[in-house]
Each structure stands twice: as structure tokens, then as C-alpha cells.
Description:
This protein has 381 residues and is α/β, with parallel strands linked by helices. It has helices spanning 12-23, 39-49, 59-68, 77-85, 103-111, 121-137, 147-155, 189-192, 202-210, 212-225, 263-271, 286-289, 303-314, 318-334, 340-353, 362-380; strands at residues 2-7, 28-34, 53-56, 73-76, 92-95, 115-118, 142-144, 164-171, 232-236, 242-248, 253-257, 295-296. The protein has 16 helices and 12 strands. The strands form 2 sheets. The chain has a 7-stranded parallel beta sheet with strand order 4-3-2-1-5-6-7, sandwiched between helices. The protein has a 5-stranded mixed beta sheet with strand order 11-10-8-9-12, covered by helices on one side. Helix 6 runs parallel beside helix 10 (212-225), helix 6 runs antiparallel to helix 14 (318-334) and helix 13 (303-314) packs parallel to helix 15 (340-353). The protein binds NADPH dihydro-nicotinamide-adenine-dinucleotide phosphate and magnesium ion. Mn(2+) binds at residues 146, 148, 217. Keywords: Isoprene biosynthesis, Magnesium, Manganese, Metal-binding, NADP, Oxidoreductase.
Amino acid sequence: xxxxxxxxxxxxxxxQTLDIIREHPEEFSLKAMSVxxxxxxxxxxxxxxxxxxxxxxxxxxxxxxxEEYPHIKFIYGEEGIxxxxxxxxxxxxVNAVLGSIGLNPTLKAIEAGKTIAIANKETLVTxxxxxxxxxxxxxxxILPVDSEHSAIFQSLQGEKDKNIERLILTASxxxxxxxxxxxxxxxxxxxxxxxxxxSMGAKITIDSATMMNKGLEVIEAHWLFDLPYEKIDxxxxxxxxxHSMVEFHDSSIKAQLGTPDMRVPIQYALTYPDRxxxxxxxxxxxxxxxxxxxxxxxxxxxxxxxxxxxxxxIGGTMPTVLxxxxxxxxxxxxxxxxxxxxxxxxxxxxxxxxxTVEFPSLDLIQEIDKETRKYVNTLLR
Length: 381
Ligand code: NDP
Ligand code: MG
């Protein structure tokens, strides 16, 4: 029996992680979880899974829930997430919270020796060097949940790092794949939230439309697989069937294929190096799909991908700025405060405004993260 602490239990990845726990009650047990503001769903999860520890974002919800469920320990705020992440009775931390708020708790969980199943990409983008360094120091596994990184991780099983030629991350193209830049001027939030292949949280769906999601994934891959950016490529593949690939020196390419169902990579992170049957969900029917398409990436069309490569190569605090500016800009777009193309303008301005600092400490990263959000918010006004 593997015991689990789940950060972001009410989100898209969080609820799909719960699907897997529900489907395999002999294998997994939910011990602790953190949620944001969705109290209605939190109640349902508590009643079904009976976790021992629950962290909520706000004090007011904490007060209500602790009256309703006196047998459960409630906590709140950032401290609460931290305690969830390090809960002593959990072996694995699934980090499915949204945004760089996931960083601190992840570092604490690593120090506490927890295996980390990481969905939250902002954590690795913001401070990949600290996370990977801590993981190696404490001999802790960081298992990817993101489908691209899971595909690469699966393709690398049994292979030697020295034989890797390059990683090929596939990109669906998001909601606006077939639109020109001028057609993006006046797109609405609703249109942007309509992803052709994947059903995901709002922020990552917008990131997919701007291609920033792929940019964040390139940086994530750089840290997870310890490869230079020159060895990480992106290929447009509109069907989202090949989740990513690894090319080796002898020209062989290995890939992992599957339906676009996040439960597969989530479950693999939980069962690695073993596998379990997926209780529900479809099998891949390649004959029915018939054709798969591939296309070179257009960096002028998808400027955020270009920004991410540049920020990643510069390194230091630059990826922190990329991420914080993007989080702030996407939130503003979702609130209807800016137009779609302004997201990339704001990110570009924040990057140009910043002078990178090499090998930043956790304190400095958090300071730069805050400063960047503030700077982008001033641009918004
Ligand atoms: P969602 O928006 O669906 O869920 C986010 C979760 O985080 C919710 O549980 C939310 O709580 C919680 N949360 C948000 N802000 C806070 C906060 N300030 N304090 C505490 N909890 C908070 O996101 P996704 O599940 O889509 O994505 C989560 C992460 O996984 C992201 O980093 C994303 O990039 C990554 N990812 C997602 C994939 C997907 O298919 N969705 C695929 C690969 C990676 P509540 O709703 O209760 O407010
Ligand atoms: Mg992905």
C-alpha cells in the first residue's frame, strides 16, 4: 500500500489522481491533501477518501470545515500546504497545485525524504536547480506526471544517458493552432479555453494556446533529464497521440503513445517501475486514427516558446521571471483585463526589464518572483 499526500486535490490533475486512488483501493490510500477555495468539492473528497489532514487556502473555510469534520485535522494557508507536503504518514507527494506556490512545499517534502510525483511545472521552471540539487542530496526520486516528460521517462527506461542524442517534445498546438497571428488579436477567453485534445485546468489551457506550456516543458525537461537546451526539440503533432520521444546516437527514436488521458502518466508516476491496468478510459486504436501528423515548430508564430528557450539558456533568475510574468499575465487574461496577445507582450517586457542573477538562492527566487508580479501588475495599470 502506497500512502499519498496530494497537493491541489480539487484541480484537474488532483481529481484524476483521486480517480486512480479510487480505482485501486488496495494499492493507494490518501492520507493528506491541500485544496484552494473549492469547499464544495473538498467536502465530497473528504467524505469519500477520509484523509487525516486537510489544508485549505483560507482561514474562513478552515473554520467552517473543522466544525463539520471534527475527526480530521485542518490547517490553512501556505503553512498548511507545507504541512501537507511533509505529512509523516505519506510516502509520496503528488504536487498538482497550480503555480510557483508549489516550490517551497516541494523542497520541504524532498528534505523529508518523500518521493515526488510532479505535475506542477512552475516549481521546476522557477527553481529547477534547487529542486534537483535537493533531490540528489536527499536521494529522492522526482517522477514526472506531465505527459511529455512521462513519455520521455518511459522511453529512457533501460537506456544509458550517454546515448541520448536529443529529446523531442510533441506539442498539440493548443486552441489556436490553425490561426494566424492577426487572427489572434480579438480571441476571447472562452475560445482560448477550448482545447482540441486535452481537458485541463484554465491556466495550462491558456498556456497551451500561447505555446508557453511547451516552453515551460522545455525548461522542465532540461532539469528533469539534465540535458542542455540544444538537445531539446519541439515538434508540432496535432493528434496528441505520441506524447514525446527520445532520439539516440544510433538514430533510433523511442516514443510513448497513448490516448490523451492524463490518468495514464499520473498512474505511472504512482506505480513506477511497475504498472497497473487503467480501470476506465479507452485503449489506443491506431487503425481508427489512421494518420499522425508532424510539423516543424514556428517560433515566430509562437513567441512564448522562443522566450522560454531564451530564458532557459540565460538561466539564473530569468526562468523565474518568465514564469512569474506569465502567471500574472494569464491570470489577467482570464479575468478579462488584457487581450490574448498581450500575454506575450507582458512576458517579453518583464524579461527585457530583468538582469539575470546566476545560481540564485531560494530567498532570491522568491523575491524576484514577487517583484516580477508587481512589475507586470504596474504595466497592467
Ligand atoms: P487546476 O487549476 O485545475 O487546479 C489547481 C489546483 O491548485 C486546485 O486544487 C486549486 O484549488 C489549487 N490552488 C490554486 N491556487 C492555490 C493556492 N494559492 N493555494 C492553494 N491551492 C491552490 O490546475 P491543473 O490541475 O490543470 O494543473 C495543476 C498543475 O499541473 C499546473 O502546474 C499545470 O501546469 C500542471 N499540469 C496540468 C496538466 C493537466 O492536464 N491539467 C497536465 C500537465 C501538467 P481550488 O480549485 O480548490 O481553488
Ligand atoms: Mg504536458
